[in-house]
Design brief:
Helix content is about 65%, strand content about 0%. Helix 1 packs across helix 2 and helix 2 packs across helix 3.
């Protein structure tokens, strides 16, 4: 399970920013306890399903409709050897705005987008993790991308002079 710890934390961070470490710790403990029930195959979807379930158990139904702000400490620093400090600052600002736009998506769209685009999970794996049909995964992903595009357009219009 340890090779998938970063993926587990990444998903938990997008689902519950402030409680991500607690969620991952609880998930790892549950995975350890349930390891006898693991039937083989790819451990990553199995672990991410546990992370997701731990989040929903901890947060309850109320968290499904709530935006989660990203922690400010997670922002990437500008590299000292960057050839163009202005470009690096612009890129960092765009990344921050994109992260904010993703964080404002409804949780069912956000988790699907994170699993597909950041964790490179297949539709089948996402369906297994979320316990939804593949058609629902595809629909949520399309809606998440459309909402993200819409929010990105709004963010970039605010940036224009």
């Amino acid at each position: 399970m340890l090779p998938h710890l970063d993926a587990a934390y990444n998903l938990a961070r997008w689902l519950a920013a402030q409680e991500a470490e607690d969620v991952v710790q609880d998930a790892m403990l549950r995975a350890f306890r349930a390891f006898d029930g693991f039937r083989g195959g790819d451990a990553k979807p199995w672990l991410l399903a546990i992370v997701r379930n731990c989040h929903y158990t901890a947060a309850g139904q109320k968290a499904k409709r709530k935006s989660v702000p990203l922690p400010e400490e997670g922002e990437k620093e500008i590299a000292a050897d960057a050839p163009d400090p202005e470009r690096s600052a612009i890129d960092a600002d765009r990344a921050r705005k994109l992260n904010h736009a993703i964080a404002t998506l409804p949780v069912e769209f956000r988790e699907t987008l994170v699993l597909r685009e950041m964790e490179d999970m297949s539709y089948r794996e996402i369906a297994d993790i979320t316990g939804t049909p593949i058609g629902t995964v595809m629909s949520r992903l399309a809606r998440a991308r459309a909402l993200l595009r819409e929010r990105w357009s709004a963010e970039t219009k605010e940036m224009a002079p």
